[in-house]
Structures are given as C-alpha cells and as structure tokens.
Amino acid sequence: MIECALDPDTKKWLKDFLGDMVRFDEPMSKHTSFRVGGPAEAYVKVQNIEDLAVLVKGAYERNLPWHIIGDGTNLLVKDQGVKGIVIVLKGFFTGNEIDWKKDDSALVKCMAGFRIKNLCRLAAANRLKGMNPVLGIPGTVGGGIVMNAGNDMGAISDVLDSVTFMMADGKIKTISAKNLCFKYRKLLWDSGYKEKYGKFPVILQGIFRLCISSKSLKELEQEAWKILSRRKEKQPLEFPSAGCFFKNPLSGEPAGKLIDLAGLKGKTAGGAQISPKHANFIINRNNASCSDILELAETVKQKVADMFGVILKSEVRILE
C-alpha cells in the first residue's frame, strides 16, 4: 500500500463538501481501460466547474497530491494505488455546442469530459471534416488535447482553435491554440505554471475549428466506417489495454515494427502480453498486474535498444 496523504480532517472536508461524489480506497482497476491498478485514496466525481475550483484550490492550499483523469484510457495505475485525490471529469463535463460561421466553418465547443468518439459523431452528423485523425481513439476531449492524440493522418491539435483551463488557484483562462506548444503525443505547457503551482493546468474545454465537407453524409459515414474497420482489423480491441504503449520514434521505423522485428510479438510476463496482432499493444490477457505490464514494457525497451539503438518512450501515463 502507498503512504497515505489524506489525514482524517482532509477526508472529513472532502466528505462534507462532496457527499456521495467521493469514494475512499476506490479500486482504480474499475476505472482504467487496462483493468489494473490499486486503490485511490480518494476518488472524486466533480459535477460542475464551481466545485472543481473549490476542490483544486483546496488541494493546492493543503499541499495535497491530486490527479485529473477522464476515461482512464491512456493510463496505467500502480498496484499499490494512488496517493491523494483522483478527480474524474467524465460524466458531468460533457457539454457541447456548434457555433456556425458565415464562411462554411464552425467552432465546435466541447467540455473536457466529452468523449472523442462523440465529438467525431457530432462533426460527421453536421458534415464537418477534420476529425479523422482521432476517429476511433478512445478517451475524452481533455485527455486527447493533453496527449495531442492522433494517427498517421494528423493530430487533434491540427483543428484545435482554443483551450480553456483552470489553474491550481481556481482561476480560469482561455488561450489560443496558436500560443500553445504541441509536440508528438503531448502538449507542452509553459513551465511557469508548474513552477508556481506544482501542477499543470486542468483543461476544461476545447474549441475546434472545422469546415463543412464537400462530401455527402453517406460518403462521410462510409469513410469513417473504413477507418474504424481498418483499426479493428489491426488492433487487439478485444482485450484490455491502453492502446499503443510506446511513442513512435521521430524517424525510422514505427515502434510496433521495431518490437515485431525484435521477435517480441506474443511474449508474456504474468498475465500481460505483447499482442500477436499489433506489437505496440501490451494487453491484459489474463488478470495482469501493473507490475506484469511494466516488466514487459521494460523487456521491450531493453531488447529494442540492444538490437536497433532506439530508446522507446512510453505513450501511457503512469499514476502512483
């Protein structure tokens, strides 16, 4: 078990403030796509921005560790659990609207807890193009922005217009996407945020600038079906995982190809396995632990480094 960060007074504050929206010692295996992970000291569902501001500011002032999660789809939680407060945005932070412009474009506003798949459906239903790079990617809009989710067709930042976020003192700001620094599979916040608050901001909303497609609704649906079918054919979606485990190197062969060439497809550690279908997927094949998954990931990194001189970096966020 982890060393506790929440004393009885803190737990009372959380319970008095949040009521049934807080659970103590909540198994995180119930809330991640990997289906692994020990208990969170406090697992909190926040219903509105006002409560989130009180919670985040209170945790900051009390010097408590806290973590924001969405759908738990790009997340690996250690077996011993999570210290502090896990704050969940999905379920309540799901508002969305479309602001049509005169130039056949639209600003699509989505709260951070709105699922990416629902954003893609919303865009397609209104014949708006630009979301194919995240089509089929699980998780929420907030998580997608943080990791700059995408595929070989592009990334979510390509169509992002602005981001609204909350700082650790509860203050809210909106910034143009042009003034944010997006890299491959990550958003680089100004280091001043973390230096001042010890945490990066919490994303509340993303606004996407999309254009009307010249294709018919039926053509867009067929296009989406082809992309999703190809994804289903190539990826082991029938097993718990966090999607692609390693980032692709910036040059040369993709991570999955390197892992395959290293002869690691199908390799296991406990209940974890390198997927025989897609080598960049570590799957929970048989009641794996986080330790099993990390052991397998380390084996992959070592073998690929030894054989090809490439250092693979994890795409999955590790929470402890």
UniProtKB/TrEMBL annotation:
Keywords: Cell cycle, Cell division, Cell shape, Cell wall biogenesis/degradation, Cytoplasm, FAD, Flavoprotein, NADP, Oxidoreductase, Peptidoglycan synthesis
Active site, per annotation: 185, 244, 315
Domain of life from the UniProt record: Bacteria
Cofactors, names only: FAD
An MF annotation (GO) of this entry: FAD binding
Listed PANTHER family: UDP-N-ACETYLENOLPYRUVOYLGLUCOSAMINE REDUCTASE (PTHR21071)
Protein name per the record: UDP-N-acetylenolpyruvoylglucosamine reductase
Annotated source species: Desulfonema limicola
Taxonomic lineage of the native organism: Bacteria, Pseudomonadati, Thermodesulfobacteriota, Desulfobacteria, Desulfobacterales
